[in-house]
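Appendix C: a fully annotated inverse folding record. The material below is reproduced so that readers can follow the format used throughout the book. The structure is listed first as tokens, followed by the designed sequence.
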């Protein structure tokens, strides 16, 4: 039997995405965002408020990167969500992380995170109920130690963080429990 719970509705799991962009002078800013997802084969949508420093930077330079946060860098990832670049001008520098310029877009790649998508700003969607940054993914990179022999990412090796909006906790991604487009195949037979 179900029981009514508080009205804070949540989806679990949510990704822990590190959104990075340069400002107009080339200064790096990074934010932690859980409200984002792939929305097409080569697109990502970030449902982030228009007042974020990173959002302002993306609108100005028309490019950004999205990295997957991992357990190894949980403190820095959390800090990027606690601090605001609108008030803390040395936010990125405080972590001692390293950024290199993408060779595909005008955006920084944060070297410490294991997977990154390099994006051009495709569209800003602004309605009464929604503000979304949509990026066209033009390249993706991953650390070699998380790749298999065919060059594909091994999810378990990322130790990716996921966010729990119910109780505001982080978890890491666990073991594989099934194969997509296979686990439910038995129901296709009559």
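Designed amino acids, in order:
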């Amino acid at each position: 039997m179900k029981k009514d719970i508080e009205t804070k509705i949540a989806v679990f799991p949510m990704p822990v995405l590190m959104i990075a962009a340069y400002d107009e002078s080339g200064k790096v800013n990074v934010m932690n965002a859980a409200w984002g997802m792939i929305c097409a084969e080569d697109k990502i949508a970030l449902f982030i408020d228009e007042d974020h420093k990173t959002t302002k930077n993306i609108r100005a330079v028309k490019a950004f990167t999205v990295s997957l946060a991992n357990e190894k860098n949980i403190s820095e990832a959390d800090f990027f969500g606690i601090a605001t670049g609108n008030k803390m001008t040395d936010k990125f520098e405080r972590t001692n992380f390293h950024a290199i310029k993408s060779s595909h877009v005008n955006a920084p790649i944060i070297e410490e995170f294991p997977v990154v998508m390099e994006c051009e700003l495709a569209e800003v969607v602004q309605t009464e109920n929604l503000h979304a940054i949509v990026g066209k993914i033009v390249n993706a990179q991953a650390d070699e130690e998380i790749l298999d022999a065919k060059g594909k990412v091994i999810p378990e090796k990322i130790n990716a963080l996921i966010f729990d909006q119910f109780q505001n906790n982080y978890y890491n991604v666990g073991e594989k429990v099934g194969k997509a487009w296979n686990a439910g195949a038995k129901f296709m037979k009559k």
